[in-house]
Specification:
Blueprint lengths: L37 E4 L5 H15 L2 H4 L6 E5 L2 E3 L2 E3 L4 E5 L7 E3 L2 E3 L17 E8 L5 E2 L8 E6 L3 E2 L11 E4 L2 E7 L5 E13 L4 E8 L11 E4 L2 E5 L3 E4 L5 E6 L1 E5 L11 E5 L3 E4 L5 H9 L3 E4 L3 E4 L3 E3 L5 E4 L4 E4 L6 E3 L6 E8 L5 E7 L14 E9 L7 E7 L5 E9 L17 E5 L5 E8 L6 E3 L4 E9 L11 E3 L2 E2 L4 E3 L6 E10 L8 E7 L6 E10 L5 E6 L13 E6 L1
Parallel strand pairs: 1-2, 2-5, 3-6, 4-7, 5-8, 6-8, 8-10, 9-11, 10-12, 10-13, 11-13, 12-14, 13-14, 14-15, 15-16, 22-23, 23-26, 24-27, 25-28, 26-29, 27-29, 28-30, 29-31, 30-32, 31-33, 32-34, 33-35, 34-36, 35-37, 36-40, 37-41, 40-42, 41-43, 42-44
Antiparallel strand pairs: 17-20, 18-19, 19-21, 38-39, 43-45
Length: 583
């Protein structure tokens, strides 16, 4: 190379690039357009106007026969202030206050779920997919929240009684309360099972099979099985859900509660919930028209996601690779993976928060719907774990979905806080059947020190839960085995072992502990079918189960033992077989 005489070197510019990270989310609006399915109410609006809108939405979302598997989705958000309304909550409806604390929004009325429809015959066991959050209720005569699975009641200040059963006193199939205060009595009455976490109750009444409390003042004493109450003084680790609120300048933000250890009582009982917040300028608002490509693009640029009500088909996996990413859904936004892709993959990073999503398996089999951490994940996340909250998985019912596993947790220290993984036992014509909506396992946990608080897993065709990680803990487990087993030969976990345990702890696990677990059978296709046991665990002192039970619903089929070879066979009269402690 030749250099012309007399030239000097030019100034040198330098730049640094880090491969694999983004420059940050391009600024979004702090007062975003949430789309047509988000209804925002202001206290300056007349009560009659708000009531008419609530009633119209409920009329569309009410009927079990037509709305349960519809594609309607709605969120009802109340700005800070006081409202005189009665909000009846239908399918796929989220009701939430937009204050920073629950008492910033007060409903002088009710936020109600009941067995509304004549076709329900007073039975609330199909009251799925609805939620209430972050507001106060002044209810005349008490507030009724008679729900089944996937219907969380969070961050609510009930100035009075809370009725968790239908007005008819018909059956309800279990639910979840967290970070809530009830000044009066919370009564379960005909609820089959229930879990209450980090709350304050004036008192509690009732219990059918499996009532569980952790970190709840006013909870009943630990008396399982008579009455069937399991009570832990604290919750080992918890972190309340991220939530949307409006700040003093009228801008939207998302609050991120801090991690709690050995918690008891509502996080806001003595003032504001500890934590931090992020502006909506750091959130990409997912709404009608978005695709997997636009969502992944937003994630790759460093955005969090705020997912509005709707049904979103995915032709590629959503990849969450950045630590502390928040994915917050309202109004039961639903991801449907098409062409056999997996819906969501989370990297083995700190502090990802997933909340408020329904993942509905597509008609081509997915290997997994949600995976947290790749196989072999080894990082420790104890100080800032990933949280999976109000995440619901569905195989069949709406469409003839298929997925081998719904949730795989490989990352250590993950908190699973209220999920319902459901292989549908009923639904639209042609979407349900032993060879139609196929799914092996609801949840596989491979990470260590994973905690599940509120684990609802039902009807999978092999083990419902497989826990391979060390030092795992579960507080509350609710399960029904698959109804539709055609014959015993089609449902054998090993040679000579009838059926599959609902909850299996891996043979190499030496430390695991679980409290308040129920597994039920109803083999209505072939009542001669039986399962040898509901819980299968290594016989080692470090693996401990407390307050486990089995029930044969109507005596249709049999579970021979509760845990390993221990516990009586299920009775024909729908009474539980109980094991208070194992080993």
């Amino acid at each position: 190379m030749a250099i012309k005489s007399g030239l000097t070197n030019s100034a040198v510019a330098s730049a640094t690039y880090t491969i694999g990270t983004s420059a940050g989310c391009p600024t979004q609006s702090d007062i975003p357009n949430f789309g047509p399915n988000v209804h925002i109410y202001d206290p300056t609006m007349s009560s009659a106007t708000i009531q008419a809108q609530l009633d119209a939405q409920f009329a569309q979302m009410k009927d079990t026969a037509t709305a349960q598997f519809s594609e309607n989705r709605v969120a009802q958000l109340f700005k800070p202030g006081t409202y005189a309304v009665d909000d009846n909550v239908g399918f796929y409806t989220s009701v939430a206050g937009l204050g920073q604390n629950p008492d910033d929004v007060t409903i002088n009325g009710h936020v109600t779920v009941d067995a509304f429809n004549a076709s329900d015959a007073g039975n609330a066991t199909q009251n799925f997919w609805r939620s209430a959050e972050n507001l106060a209720i002044n209810p005349v005569g008490g507030n009724r929240w008679a729900v089944a699975q996937a219907a969380p009641f969070r961050r609510i200040d009930v100035h009075g009684d809370l009725q968790l059963y239908p007005a008819s006193y018909g059956w309800a199939s279990g639910g979840y309360v967290a970070d809530t205060k009830v000044s009066g009595q919370a009564a379960s009455i005909s609820q089959q099972q229930w879990y209450t976490r980090d709350s304050d109750l004036g008192s509690w009444a009732g219990g059918v099979w499996n009532m569980v409390f952790s970190g709840t003042t006013g909870a009943p004493a630990n008396t399982f099985p008579n009455p069937p109450e399991t009570t832990l003084a604290t919750t080992p680790v918890s972190r309340d859900v991220p939530y949307l609120y409006i700040d003093g300048a009228g801008k939207y933000r998302v609050f991120l509660p801090s991690l709690r250890t050995n918690a008891s009582g509502a996080s806001w009982a003595n003032g504001s919930t500890p934590g931090t917040s992020q502006p909506m300028s750091q959130f990409y608002v997912v709404k009608a028209g978005d695709t997997a490509a636009t969502i992944n693009n937003a994630l790759s640029q460093g955005c969090n996601l705020f997912v509005t009500p709707g049904v979103y088909h995915l032709n590629q996996t959503l990849n969450i690779t950045r630590a502390d990413t928040v994915v917050l859904g309202i109004g039961y936004p639903t991801f449907v993976p098409d062409n056999g892709v997996n819906a969501i993959q989370v990297a083995d990073v700190d502090g990802v928060r997933l909340k408020g999503l329904l993942i509905d398996a597509g008609t081509t089999n997915s290997a997994a719907l949600l995976t947290v951490g790749p196989a072999g994940s080894s990082a420790t996340h104890g100080g800032n774990p990933t949280t999976i909250q109000d995440l619901f998985f569905r195989i069949g019912g709406q469409i003839a979905g298929k997925a081998t596993t719904s949730l795989i947790v490989n990352s250590n220290n993950t908190i699973i806080d209220h999920i319902w993984a459901w292989r549908a036992d009923h639904g639209n014509a042609g979407t349900v059947g032993w060879t139609t909506n196929t799914a092996d396992t609801g949840v596989i946990v491979n990470g260590s020190s994973v905690l599940a608080t509120g684990l609802f897993v039902e009807h999978y065709q092999k083990h419902e839960v497989v826990w391979n990680g060390q030092n795992g803990k579960t507080i509350f487990f609710q399960n029904e085995m698959p109804y539709d087993v055609p014959n015993q030969g089609a449902w054998m976990s090993a040679a000579g072992v009838n059926g599959y345990a609902a909850y299996k702890v891996g043979a190499g696990v030496t430390t695991h502990e679980a409290w308040g677990l129920g597994s039920y059978c109803y083999f209505n296709v072939n009542p001669a079918v039986n399962s040898y046991h509901a819980f299968e665990v290594p016989n080692t002192p470090g693996v401990k189960f407390h307050d486990a039970l089995t029930v044969s619903l109507g005596g249709v089929g049999t579970i021979i033992h509760v845990i390993n070879d221990t516990g009586a066979a299920t009775a024909s009269n729908t009474t539980p077989s109980n094991v208070v402690a194992y080993p």
